Amino acid sequence: MDSIRVVIADDNEGMRLIEAKLIALAEGFDLAGEAADGPSLLREVEAKKPQVVFLDVDMPGLSGVECAKRIRETDPDTVLIFATAHEGYMGDAFEVYAFDYLVKPFRTERVLETLRRVRARFMEEEAAAKRPVTLNAGGRITIRHRDGVAFVPMDEILLVQREERQTVLVCTDNRRFITGENLSEVEARLDPAVFCRCHKSYIINLNHIAAVEPYGRWTSIVKLNGTKETALITKEKLEELMVE
Questions:
Q1: What are residue 184's phi and psi, to 5 degrees?
Q2: Could you tell me the pLDDT band of residue 13, with boundaries at 50, 70 and 90?
Q3: pLDDT per residue as tens digits for the range 212-221
Q4: Is the Cβ–Cβ distance between 204 and 226 less than 8 Å?
Q5: What is the predicted pLDDT for the residue at 135?
Q6: What is the pLDDT of residue 138?
């Protein structure tokens, strides 16, 4: 397994130094970049494509929570770890699916344990990727997972999404199936006339779109019939669908 790339963001240089030393102590991690404010963090994330980001809540330019939302919008697979002196933002952090929330001053072992859990997750995903999703006769997708095999008719699939670094199929009866396959591998097995890769992290069933609502400058939210789950769709992909 390759080293896991990490970017750290904190306006306190001393805290960045501490975090850099902890990352160096942990097995399997590589410090790819640092940032002292929100805008710099977003530039580092775009340039370095880290798999893990340590970020403070209170930073110049953009808060850590706002940065986390923007990172989630562009790459939902990024593992976000807040390291902050502010306990009051824990709820906001977990709304953007933060992996952990470390309150300063934190103990060395507390951080190293978090990094061990992160590495264990990556290793599990790497192993799960060897269990493929295949298409069977009759328009069914065969999903191999830890508990066995599931056979899912394609017309029952509402949404395929990346969630907590796994691929999840959401069906019309609210069943959820999890596989280690990435979205591109699943997409290759779906009918392109019915399913649309609307975002880096989402595939939707076009026959079940209920509404599309504004979300950000470059994305909108897709609501689907039969589920409370939603998907993101890029501006470019939405314009393509509207032309069709």
A1: -65, -40
A2: very high
A3: 998 877 889 9
A4: no
A5: 47
A6: 53
Decide: helix, strand or coil at residue 237.
helix
Q: Of 161, 169, 171, give the one whose Cα is nearest residue 226.
A: 171
pTM exceeds cut of 0.70: no
The segment(s) of the chain belonging to CATH 3.40.50.2300 are 4-128
Per the DSSP assignment, residues forming a β-bridge with 52 are 6, 79
DSSP label at 218? S
Going across the sheet that includes 157-163, the strands are 176-179, 166-171, 157-163, 202-205, 195-199
Q: What tokens were used for 60?
A: 């110049």
- In the chain, CATH 2.40.50.1020 sits at 138-243
* Nearest partner of 39 among 79, 9, 13, 81, judged by Cα: 9
What's the CATH number of domain 4-128, 3.40.50.150, 3.40.50.1820, 3.30.565.10, 3.40.50.2300? Answer: 3.40.50.2300
Looking up tokens 């591998």 gives 185
